[in-house]
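Case study.
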Amino acid sequence: MRVLSGIQPTGNLHLGNYLGAIRNWVKMQDEMDAESACFFFLADLHSITVHEEREARIRNVREMAAALIACGIDADRSVLFNQARVPAHAELAWLLNGTARIGWLNRMTQFKDKAGKNREGASVGLFVYPVLQAADILLYQATHVPVGEDQKQHLELTRDIAMKFNTDFGVELFTLPDPYIPKESARIMSLRDGNAKMSKSDPSDMSRINLTDTDDEIAQKIRKAKTDPEPLPDVASALEGRAEALNLIGIYATLTESTPDAVCAQFAGQGFGAFKPALAEVLVDTLRPIRERFVELKDDEAALDAILDKGAEKARSVAAPTLSGAYEALGLMR
Ligand code: TYM
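After joint prediction, the assembly is written out as follows.
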């Protein structure tokens, strides 16, 4: 079993990242036996598909490392690094470009969403983004990849690339990874629109809870979150068609390790005036300690760089045999 996952170091971690992915990273890390490490990385090579100033990029990598550690990633047990420190990612991505098909990439919904109407003006990097993601995963023979629902298609593509490479070159080089997607929190929605994903790129900060938000900001965002005037039903199935209500109940259930049915039973007959303060309270209780640790860690550049250096060294050594195997299979002499 090998657990691996990544996150783009662009801007703040938000509640969607935390409940959809990072919380599971920490759980899987904590359940791992002492000999096997999990691999978690900052996808800074992916982040060049979004324009950013150089200084911001440097800062964002360190801050995302600090945020992951604040969430519970332990750099002594897990391998924490950024892609740019491990050239094998870019190298394998190039080799896999010979295997991935344009038709496969054309079907990627994330590319369609991000490129929008101006496809011709989108960067090549944005188009081949999923091939780099496949390289990230296949380099380490990952078996379990904890991600939110929006990454499922990229995982399927990774399997297709791995299978075609193994078949085309008659090797058993790449392991086929499985996505590990949480049941309740796979898709946390915007607080302003229950049909849109909570995301870093939403222009309205009121649409998301950032892990750096103060207690007051969290309470205010929940108070202003879009809802409906109906009281809560006693079973979650009755929430159908009430996207915003379903999202908030799902967040509460995930944070309290409960189920939407149990949360409905608890608040049945009450309106959002009663439910929202309870939700704000569990959010504040969960996020406050993370925020406090993050603030302590984020400015210690030397310590964060040392952690990423150490992680990258380990990552390079684990990635090397797979990369060599790919060159070898292709007949590329080094
Ligand atoms: P990224 O940086 O967009 O998001 C990081 C993780 O957070 C999850 N996530 C969500 N989960 C639930 N609800 C939401 N609203 C929500 N928003 C984000 C994402 O599913 C993801 O798990 N391409 C990836 C980074 C990546 C990667 C990889 C992941 C690069 N290489 C290899 C796994 C394996 C991305 O942009 O995630």
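Observations recorded in class. The chain has a mean pLDDT of 96. Residues 5-8, 16-17, 20-21, 43, 46, 133, 136-137, 145, 147-148, 150-151, 186-188, 197-199 surround tryptophanyl-5'AMP (CB under 6 Å). We will return to this complex in the next lecture.
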